[in-house]
Amino acid sequence: MLEDDVRKWLQTLEETPDIAGPDWSRLIDGCLDEYLVANPSLQGDWQSVLVDQGLDAAMLNQLETKVVARKQSVPTSHLLSNIFEEFVREVGTIDEGTLNEYRIGVRRFIELHGNLDATKITRHHAKSFRDAIRMLPSRPPNAVRSQSLAKQVDWALLQNAKTVGQSAINKNLLGVKRTLDYAFLETAIFNNRDWRNPFDGFSRKPGKPKNPIKPFTPNQLTRVFSSEVYRTKTVEKFWIPLVLFYTGARLDEISQLHVDDIKMEPLPHILAENLEDEDQEIAKKLKTESSHRTIPIHHKLITTGFLNYVAAIRSTGARHLFPGLPHKKGRGSGDLVSRDFITRFRNVGERDKTTGLNTRSLVTHSLRHSFRTFALYLPDQMFVQIAMGHYVSGESIQTYGRQAYLMPDLLHQKVFKDIDLPPIDDTFIQQEAERYLSAITIT
Question: Which of 208, 303, 311, 409 has its CA 20 to 30 A from that of 152?
Answer without folding.
Answer: 208
